[in-house]
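Bumping with the actual sequence this time:
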Amino acid sequence: MCDPESDRAFVEELKQRAVNVEVREVDLYINTPEFAREVIQALEEILPPR
């Protein structure tokens, strides 16, 4: 399922069409603690404090 050309095309199209949405790219595998930390950080930036 690895297709770098299709992945690049998807990301570029997403960036063009995702109006008012920040698209972040990180060079991490989805099933790693580092990726999870990035997701948590992004959520903390947009969610209101509890």
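The tokens above came from a reply further down the thread. The helical segments are 4-17, 33-46.
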